[in-house]
Design brief:
single chain; five-stranded parallel β-sheet; globular; 182 residues; alpha/beta; Rossmann fold
């Protein structure tokens, strides 16, 4: 029996972007199964709670799968701790990562070498499409904090995410207040 090739695509997804969804879409064509792991980075302040991020990603991934039923199955799971431990838990052959630019590549290669050395797990990279090369969750949070009209984010995030960002802005989320004050 042939071995199934499972990949884990980890991230904080705070918020999820079209670039993230592009990596999911492309990963579905590369692996037999894809597990999107919504993790918590203790070094980052999050705009959305862990549960909100899991729900946001789940809803958007479900829609992506519905729109393209031919791709490999994908599931969304929550995790804490090391990505390599989560990958082992899922039976993953690889960690899937999106690379937008040279800065990403330098960081991601360092992580990939460490993950291979420490946990014997490979990393597969997909290069971002040109329209996603400069989109980041950090940039989206800055625009949300400082911008008046969030409709300009429509090329970076789905409409449902824009609505959630508007809610956080109306609630004067502390992270957005800190970003606004600089």
């Amino acid at each position: 029996m042939a071995r199934r090739h499972i990949a884990v695509y980890p991230g904080s997804f705070d918020p999820v972007t079209f670039g993230h969804l592009d990596v999911v879409r492309r990963g579905r064509g590369l692996f037999d199964e894809l597990v999107v792991g919504v993790g918590t980075n203790p070094g980052k302040a999050h705009l959305f709670t862990h549960q909100e991020r899991v729900e946001m990603v789940s809803t958007l991934v479900d829609q992506l799968v519905k729109d393209d039923p031919e791709g490999s199955p994908v599931r969304v799971e929550s995790f804490t701790g090391l990505t390599v431990d989560f990958a082992r838990h899922c039976g993953a052959a690889a960690i899937l990562r999106g690379v937008r630019n040279l800065s990403d590549l330098q960081y991601e290669v360092q992580q990939a070498v460490t993950n291979r050395q420490v946990a014997s797990i490979e990393t597969a990279f997909v290069v971002a499409g040109q329209s996603f090369a400069y989109t980041s969750s950090s940039l989206i949070k800055q625009i949300t904090a400082m911008g008046e009209d969030l409709s300009g984010l429509s090329s970076m995030v789905p409409e449902s995410v824009i609505e959630l960002l508007k809610e956080k802005k109306e609630q004067e989320h502390p992270l957005l207040m800190r970003l606004r004050e600089g």
